[in-house]
Write a structure and sequence with these properties.
mainly alpha; Growth Hormone, Chain: A; disordered N terminus
């Protein structure tokens, strides 16, 4: 067996092939993240065409999220055992057929089945984390994992390219509908890219892969999960990633309901429409359509308003929460992940408190605080995943898989918890209050672990072993 198939990362320079692994995995992850969350970006045309209720669409979203979350631990372990080249190629190909089938669905049941199958693409995160950790030395892992994790920006890819693709394809499509028109062209486009990406990963990545878990028994690989610190990292990742996913889907509607009245005149909507925005945002279904029909300019101007809100959320929240991840990794490499985590907690606690309190914030300070919150999440996601290889260098697949799995599940549970609280209190800012409570708990546990280690003058890993 070649030595490179079992060695762990050294603290020296990156080996030949590491950069190819980084850029191939990052590109693949960006694509697969876009596939994983494509229903959210296509929600309006799909709901209208198939006549889906809000409840049915929520079921579709949860199905895809669960499929892309529950197997993250398994995929992390498999990557350590068999290598990222094999596992990522297989995952890309496994996602092709259900993604293409989305373009042919005619019912809720068919779409639900597709969501359960193509949602597996979400597991690509832990594959890439484990693969890159195996190829990069410890001193460079923070930046490398941060660059890879910036593939979260795939959440906005459909929103950015979708309108252009849909506009470029005739409604009837091409070749007798083989390439369909409208929103159905998006899954065909993604399915084709998945095949191309699978070929790129297989043929362009190093043929001799690094597999830290090869030859190790499964029982041995899951031993670190007994340690308290692993579960602490899970909570941190719920705060910086699970909440990011949840907010990405919830913030456009939050903006719409709470700031549309203020934004309407700022965006140049006509006085007639601006005067009715407060009423329009409270309507839905046939009542909303009737109200739009009563004002000639309302349909186009309200569409413009919702489009701008989508771009505001994308550029001032989704992008910083994704694209600042490499910065978080770099800072974690230079200063260590612990001081970076402290800065993240401080930024999120301050911005979260101001967003939660009933201060009557206007749209500008609200948006600036949202940017700070998103930036904290982006940097925090990288620092959490720098902590993992620092603490568990030979078990990144198992530990990173569990952390990624529970973090992603947080993206499902947070909206389910927020909805009844908002209904009970009548306070929209409960959304931020839930995140603030989770951040405070995460900060407290982090502080207890660090202070306990200093008080007893032993390494933190010894303290956590005592807590098991």
């Amino acid at each position: 067996m070649p030595p490179s198939t079992t060695e762990t990362p050294a603290d020296t320079g990156s080996p030949p092939g590491a950069q190819r692994v980084l850029w191939l995995s990052t590109t693949a992850f960006t694509l697969m993240f876009a596939v994983w969350l494509m229903l959210g970006m296509l929600s309006i045309p799909i709901k209208n065409e198939l006549g889906l209720t809000d409840g049915q669409f929520l079921q579709l979203t949860i199905a895809a999220m669960l499929s892309g979350s529950l197997l993250r631990f398994n995929f992390g372990v498999w990557t350590d055992k068999y290598g990222g080249r094999r596992v990522l190629t297989a995952l890309l190909l496994l996602s092709v057929i259900p993604t293409l089938l989305v373009s042919q669905v005619t019912s809720f049941a068919q779409l639900l089945g597709c969501a359960l199958m193509y949602g597996v693409a979400g597991n690509s995160f832990t594959v890439g984390i484990a693969w890159n950790a195996a190829w990069f030395p410890r001193a460079k892992q923070g930046f490398a994992l941060g660059v890879f994790g910036a593939g979260n920006v795939g959440a906005s890819v459909t929103k950015l390219i979708g309108p252009f693709l849909i506009a470029a394809i005739p409604a009837a499509g091409y070749f007798g509908g083989v390439i369909p028109g409208g929103w159905r062209v998006i899954p065909v486009f993604y399915g084709t890219l998945l095949v191309v990406m699978a070929a790129a990963v297989w043929f362009l990545s190093p043929k001799v892969d690094r597999c830290p878990g090869r030859g190790r028994k499964f029982v041995e690989m899951v031993q670190p999960l007994k340690k308290f610190r692993v579960w602490e990292y899970c909570l941190h990742y719920v705060v910086v990633f699970g909440a990011y996913v949840a907010f990405s889907g919830m913030l456009p509607m939050y903006f719409y309901k709470n700031y549309a009245v203020e934004l309407a005149p700022m965006l140049g909507l006509s006085p007639e429409v601006s005067a009715e925005v407060g009423k329009l945002v409270k309507l839905s279904g046939d009542e909303y359509k009737a109200a739009l029909a009563a004002i000639p300019a309302a349909k186009a101007e309200m569409a413009y308003l919702t489009k701008i809100i989508g771009f505001v959320v994308a550029f001032l929240y989704v992008f910083p929460a994704s694209l600042l991840r490499p910065l978080g990794g770099y800072l974690s490499d230079v200063y260590g992940p612990r001081p970076v985590m402290i800065g993240v907690f401080v930024a999120m606690l301050i911005s979260g408190t101001l967003l939660t309190l009933p201060l009557g914030l206007s749209v500008v300070p609200f948006t600036l605080l949202l940017f700070v919150l998103g930036a904290g999440m982006g940097i925090g996601k990288a620092s959490v995943y720098k902590l993992i290889p620092d603490q568990f260098p030979n078990d990144v697949g198992a530990v990173g898989g569990l952390v990624g799995m529970l973090g992603a599940l947080g993206g499902i549970l947070i909206p389910l918890g927020v909805a009844p609280l908002q209904a009970a209190t009548g306070m929209p800012s409960v959304l931020f209050g839930v995140l603030l409570a989770l951040t405070a708990l995460s900060t407290t546990i982090y502080a207890v672990m660090e202070l306990s280690a200093r008080k007893t003058k032993v390494p933190a890993e010894v303290v956590e072993a005592q807590l098991v």
